Amino acid sequence: MLQHLRKKLPLAQFFKVINDKPVASQLFEGWAKIHDRELLKDFYYQDDRKSASAGILIEESAEQTVPSLLNITNSDPCCKNRQTTVGKENLL
Question: Can you give the residue ranges of every domain in the chain?
């Protein structure tokens, strides 16, 4: 039913309709967290839910992978030479 309304109504009007109904709002939020986070961000923005928007951004950033510093230095020829030089100086 919610998907049908979402397709039939303009987005702002859809958000207003479900925002007035707590169960519909919770169902939509649960669906959007899995299937369409950008739509969920729009919903939170339209409703001025700053803390909920921040929560989504934090979740997304936690899911991103960050290359380790060791992998970056090993793949950079400049750093490899520098490490070798430092290693040789330490031996002398």
Answer: 2-63
